[in-house]
Amino acid sequence: MTTPRLFVLEDLFKFNNIVMDPLVEVYSQPFLLPKILEHPELVLTADAPDNSLMGFILGTRVEDASESFGHGKSMSWNHGHISAVAVAHDYRKLGLGTRLLTTVRDILDRQNDFYVDLFVREKNTNAIGLYESLGYVKYRWMPKFYADDHGYEMRLPLSRDVDRKSLEGIMIKKIYSFGNKLYYLLMFYIFGIIAIIIGGKLVE
Length: 204
Ligand SMILES: CC(C)(COP(=O)(O)OP(=O)(O)OC[C@H]1O[C@@H](n2cnc3c(N)ncnc32)[C@H](O)[C@@H]1OP(=O)(O)O)[C@@H](O)C(=O)NCCC(=O)NCCS
Prior knowledge:
Blueprint: E1 5-6, H1 16-19, H2 29-38, E2 43-47, E3 53-69, E4 73-87, H3 96-110, E5 115-121, H4 125-133, E6 137-146, E7 149-157, H5 172-203
Parallel strand pairs: 4-5
Antiparallel strand pairs: 1-2, 2-3, 3-4, 5-7, 6-7
Coenzyme A is lined by residues 21, 23-24, 85-87, 92-98, 120, 124, 126-127, 129-130, 133.
């Protein structure tokens, strides 16, 4: 198995084959560059034998973020965030995604962070399967988080979070079914009104 290495700025010229995927959010240079420069140890790639890139992960850290959880308790903590992870088509299902995610997780763990989180499209069941296999938990359902899809925030508590406090405010169970029903009820209502209007016009 290949060993991930630090992503360097020249790699920006070689990584389109990986990030130009409908499931990867394509970030602009002004978004990418500060993140790469701020936490270079969390931005990794892996080289293929032909010198192309096989995969890429963009990890970041959020420091002293104040957050309410559980029953209105508030806490300030450092946590990691995975902004993007992608593997080139030819190298998928070989364990590289797992390797990139576990390498970043281990670095954040050593930096004493509480948890790692990420956002994923609801329809991206392959990625959700991968995250769940690594211990990530669906924390929050985010309706219309993406222009064309709902999303989830998923979280992985790290060793410092012995009591799994980062999952305490877990909202997915409470809100998911309610939010889901409300959304479809609203759609049903809107389409019903449209159908009545169109029907009325046809009768005229
Ligand atoms: C998601 C992605 C990064 C996975 O990378 P990968 O190197 O193929 O992942 P791994 O080989 O480490 O897979 C580990 C586990 O993830 C799950 N998984 C990954 N790809 C899967 C697929 N196509 N179908 C079903 N399960 C899948 C499986 O549980 C797999 O374990 P297994 O091989 O023992 O069955 C890759 O498919 C990708 O780049 N997809 C497009 C971009 C994307 O969706 N990024 C995530 C955005 S949030």
